[in-house]
């Protein structure tokens, strides 16, 4: 199945990179927003709860952004269904890798200007091969 596709197609890498970038933007808004909220608030919440909420909010904002982008091409309901039908595997890979790096380097649920570029890089590079494979194998993308 993985051997059945060519991994050297530049146009597919470009398209999957573009799709991954939009997913990363959407996921990062909810993820970083949640972590920053708890980082600057006086709430005393366990790190695992904050990280779980960050992942959930990242998925939600990614779906909302995707819906907004797709409404340029289709009706709202169809755009929302398409956004919901996007690859949750890719989004979860992105969210888990970003939050795992934060946890490993910063001790979890802490953002600063040092860690954010690394989180974005890991969040982009982790699901990229899967997004390429999905696009190449099934011709499915979300943009």
Provide an overview of this structure:
The protein has one domain. The chain has six helices and no strands. It is globular, with a radius of gyration of 16 Å. The two termini are 24 Å apart. 31% of the residues are buried.
Keywords for this entry:
143 residues, globular, single chain, 6 helices, mainly alpha
In short:
The chain is mainly alpha-helical.
For the record, the count of structural domains works out to: 1
What are the segments in which pLDDT stays under 50 over at least 5 consecutive residues? none
Number of continuous helical runs: 6
What's the gyration radius in Å?
16 Å
**Main β sheet profile:** none
Give the CA-CA distance, first to last residue.
24 Å
Order of helices and strands: HHHHHH
Shape: globular
- Percent strand: under 5%
């Amino acid at each position: 199945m993985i051997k059945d596709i060519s991994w050297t197609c530049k146009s597919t890498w470009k398209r999957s990179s573009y799709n991954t970038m939009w997913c990363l933007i959407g996921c990062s808004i909810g993820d970083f927003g949640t972590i920053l909220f708890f980082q600057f608030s006086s709430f005393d919440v366990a790190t695992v709860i904050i990280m779980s909420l960050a992942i959930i909010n990242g998925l939600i904002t990614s779906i909302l952004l995707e819906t907004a982008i797709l409404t340029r091409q289709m009706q709202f309901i169809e755009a929302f269904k398409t956004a919901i039908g996007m690859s949750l595997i890719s989004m979860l890979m992105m969210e888990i890798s970003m939050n795992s790096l934060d946890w490993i380097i910063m001790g979890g649920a802490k953002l600063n200007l040092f860690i954010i570029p690394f989180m974005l890089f890991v969040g982009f590079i982790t699901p990229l091969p899967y997004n390429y494979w999905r696009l190449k194998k099934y011709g499915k993308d979300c943009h």
